[in-house]
Amino acid sequence: MIEAELKARVRDSEAVRRGLEERAEGRAEVYRDTCYDTPGGSLGARDAELRVGTVRGNKEVFPEPQSADRATR
Q1: Are the C-beta atoms of residues 36 and 72 closer than 8 Å to each other?
Q2: Would residue 47 be called left, alpha or beta, if left means φ above 0 and alpha means ψ between -120 and 50 degrees?
Q3: Which stretches in the chain have pLDDT values below 50?
């Protein structure tokens, strides 16, 4: 999977949402990120982090919660 993220400040978020809905059907997803750093905080010191994310949508979960939990131990 390739993920692209764009962050922008908008004045009228509902107008943006309506404009997007006119062009394509949206889907609701819930993202849950868990962020990690080294015990000494070396990642945060250089403005970095290890982030493990789970996405829950209408029909799928990526990655499977059990595999994500095992990967972080």
Answers
A1: yes
A2: left
A3: 67-73
Q: What is the pLDDT of residue 53?
A: 85
Q: How far apart are CA 53 and CA 34, in angstroms?
A: 6
Q: Output b/e per residue, 17-27; b: 16+ Cβ within 10 A.
A: eeeeeeeeeee
Q: Which residues pair with 47 in a beta bridge?
A: none
Condensed to tens digits (0 to 9), the pLDDT of residues 60-70 reads: 555 555 544 44
What's the one-letter identity of residue 42?
A: S
> From CA 73, how far away is CA 67, in angstroms rounded?
10
In single-letter form, the type of residue at position 51 comes to R
